[in-house]
Design goal:
The chain has 135 residues and is α+β, with helices and mostly antiparallel strands. The protein contains 2 helices and 4 strands; from the N terminus they run αββββα.
Length: 135
Amino acid sequence: MDLDRALRISAAGMQAQSTRLRVVAENLANRDSTGQSPGADPYRRKTVTFRNRMDRELGAETVRVGRVGTAAGDFPLRFDPSHPAADARGYVRMPNVDSMMETMDMREAQRSYAANLQVLEVTRGMLTRTIEALR
């Protein structure tokens, strides 16, 4: 039944976006996590990539989390000579987490999740009305 397929496709989208929200939360929680010793790497921002997967049972493509990776790039430096992870010049390597970027990712994931939830609710309503009509 096509309505069942729509429910399962929307659920897959919601699951992928909830993983994305979890990664955003982890990034924001660790935006000040530095290394423990001079020269040690701080927390590195995590990223989520999605992929389409053919669900043979459904006969449709669904979205899945392809990979949770890490963002490349340099770590910003902050001058704090009293920090335990400060180098000889007094600079501490900070995580490459940008709060503005994480906020944008969070809002995009929220909108996508909400859109999939709306599809799920509309589909459920259509199924309910169909069952009531058949009684």
